[in-house]
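User: Good morning. I'm curious how pyridoxal-5'-phosphate would be positioned relative to this chain. Could you predict the structure with it bound?
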Amino acid sequence: MKKHNFSAGPCVLPQEVLQKASQAVLDLDHSGLSLIEISHRSKAFVDIMEKARALALELLGLEGKGYKALFLQGGASTQFLMVALNLLEKRAGYLNTGTWANKAINEAKIYDDIYEVASSKEANYNYIPKGYDIPEEYDYFHCTSNNTIFGTQIKAFPDSPIPMVCDMSSDIFSRTLDFSKFGIIYAGAQKNMGPAGTTLVVVKEDILGKVSRKIPSMMDYKKHIGSGSMFNTPPVFAVYTSMLTLEWLKNLGGIAAIEEENEKKARLIYSEIDLNPLFKGFAVKEDRSIMNATFTLENENLKETFETMLKEAGINGLNGHRSVGGYRASMYNALSLDSVKVLVEVMSELESKA
Ligand SMILES: *Cc1c(COP(=O)(O)O)cnc(C)c1O
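Assistant: Good morning! Here's the predicted structure, ligand included:
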């Protein structure tokens, strides 16, 4: 039986995408060849790459606005340093909202000075700082749209006077935003798009080429743009599967349609967390993530019963990250409302048993 998969990443993908991807590994479009044994320079694969790049821009509403989409390797973690290498000349401003933001800051510090415009560290990152200034003399401003570990999410982005760079690894394609506010958006595929192994990077071309340092080829956005995201052998399976997920999303009605579903799922879980006296939400209400709901069980004595009930209901991946403890329900695009209903039933059943 298929489990209800609340895993934080890698995580649930649409069943039809898994089926099509498996089929393509055996035989790509009746070609008699596997997706993973054809040349990445073949027309079949170049078409797949181009389709994936075009779909990403189309879904984000960024076609014809000077942006390029790239499918790179090295995970979002490589973007932490690539952003700095390509944009950091003197100083950059970073918003510190948790573990991933810190990792981005630490990588950028290798190259130059970093200024933390604001931080919620003193509260173990249970909220999103607001009302900070972004100095216009800096090279760029970096933020993390959704803090996967702490379950907080930026609801209103600042009007940045300098290019705004955003790590959207755990909420890309989940909600409508004015994506043209951003200079660079990046996201590891393994949370809302596909398998681990590729990272989507959407770059506004005119912000590049302004640093004086030499950039190693594999780290240079311009080189990747110039070679059509094929500077070297791309991760063909991850790109193909991501393309299938983007196609799935487009057929559903795009980001606006999935956003409605995501909001229903989030409302359902948060109302249970708020109404059920056994549970307590971690993030402050106004900054709660619609992707990752973090909460704790107030009565430790019920832990074993709760976890047995979760297991019996076929619920997978609910354990919280060690820096928060408790539980985390990750409700990415492909997780159904029904799965959230099953979880909420278990939570309310626990209350009736307690
Ligand atoms: C998971 C995650 C990452 C790390 O991605 P990798 O692809 O493993 O490097 C970075 N940022 C955020 C917000 C994440 O959720």
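The radius of gyration is 21 Å. Residues 9, 75-77, 100, 144, 148, 167, 169-170, 188, 191 surround pyridoxal-5'-phosphate (CB under 6 Å).
Let me know if you'd like a different ligand tried.
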